[in-house]
């Protein structure tokens, strides 16, 4: 497999070096979220992620996995707590500064969120929007360097032959690889993946999980993944977070996840767990 060098613009190189020294890419301090200002959907969430770590969040339906993941880049505003990403408290940022910080956080969705009528290449280049002025974005003005980066990422993900296909002509697994490529073209430090394999068959799921693991290992990008499949989490993760009713019940190495822990995390849903 070829290796892609994801060089950041010079002005950000200093930040990158700093984060290597500190190693912690993301820290959540006492995060809570209520949608109606009455019930807390997630609460007391403390979490630290290191550079290049692969971490899975597991838990029953409605435990708050998506809510937690989307609070991290403030797609959903947390009700309280602090989010320190890449040395910056992003809970305190205004819109413009948040937009800048978000360029370093890629997101991968269960239903891909691609523009079906556009090509693979165009969808991937959309990942550069955060670096553009509104006008440049609307006009689709991308540099040669950005186009080369998009192509090299697509090649790495095995999508070279599909570059000029419309996205509605792709299989689910291929669409998800486009979703990953769009996130990678942002040159992120953190990749948030919200149930990336929930709509895929086992073979496509394996391809996607292998790519995500490779991204954390060879590119040093921190990957945080919501999963329904406990066995997939066990196989791929450096660390597993177990959520139940919005509280963190488990945060440790996969080998330390006992049957008792699984029962505590899933409660009555334990019999419905998905195993490949
Ligand atoms: N925008 C919203 N407004 C109100 N309630 C919401 C909203 N989004 C989620 N919820 C509620 O928050 C709770 C947690 O939902 P969330 O999607 O975060 O859980 P999850 O663990 O990701 O579930 P699943 O595995 O089924 O996707 C659920 O009770 C859900 O109904």
TrEMBL record:
PROSITE patterns on file: ABC_TRANSPORTER_1, ABC_TRANSPORTER_2
Annotated source species: Metasolibacillus meyeri
Name of the molecule in the record: Phosphonate ABC transporter ATP-binding protein
GO molecular function, one term: ABC-type phosphonate transporter activity
Primary gene name: phnC
Domain of life: Bacteria
SMART domains: AAA
Domain ABC transporter: 26-270
One Pfam family of this chain: ABC_tran
Stored InterPro entries: AAA+_ATPase, ABC_transporter-like_ATP-bd, ABC_transporter-like_CS, ABC_transpr_PhnC, MetN_ABC_transporter-like, P-loop_NTPase
Keywords, ordered alphabetically: ATP-binding, Cell membrane, Membrane, Nucleotide-binding, Phosphonate transport, Translocase, Transport
Transmembrane portions of the chain: none
GO CC annotations, alphabetized: membrane
């Amino acid at each position: 497999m070829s290796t892609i060098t994801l060089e950041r613009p010079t002005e950000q190189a200093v930040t990158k070096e700093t984060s290597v020294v500190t190693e912690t890419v993301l820290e959540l301090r006492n995060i809570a979220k209520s949608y109606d200002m009455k019930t807390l959907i997630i609460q007391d969430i403390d979490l630290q992620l290191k550079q290049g770590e692969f971490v899975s969040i597991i838990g029953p339906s409605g435990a708050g996995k998506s809510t937690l993941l989307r609070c991290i880049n403030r797609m959903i505003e947390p009700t309280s707590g602090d989010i320190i990403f890449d040395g910056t408290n992003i809970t305190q940022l205004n819109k413009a500064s948040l937009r800048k910080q978000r360029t370093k956080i890629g997101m991968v969705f269960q239903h891909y969120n691609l523009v079906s009528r556009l090509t693979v290449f165009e969808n991937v280049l959309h990942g550069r929007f955060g670096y553009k002025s509104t006008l440049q974005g609307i006009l689709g003005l991308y540099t040669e360097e950005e186009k080369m980066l998009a192509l090299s990422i697509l090649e790495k993900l095995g999508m070279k032959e599909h570059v000029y296909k419309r996205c509605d002509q792709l299989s689910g697994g291929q669409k998800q690889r486009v979703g990953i490529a769009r996130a990678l073209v942002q040159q992120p430090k953190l990749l948030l993946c919200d149930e990336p394999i929930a709509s895929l068959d086992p073979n496509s799921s394996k391809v996607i999980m292998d790519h995500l693991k490779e991204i954390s290992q060879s590119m040093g990008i921190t990957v945080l993944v919501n999963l329904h499949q406990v066995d997939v989490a066990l196989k791929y993760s450096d660390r597993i977070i177990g959520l139940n009713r919005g509280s963190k019940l488990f945060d440790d190495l996969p080998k330390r996840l006992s049957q008792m822990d699984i029962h505590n995390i899933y409660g009555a849903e334990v019999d419905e767990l998905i195993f490949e």
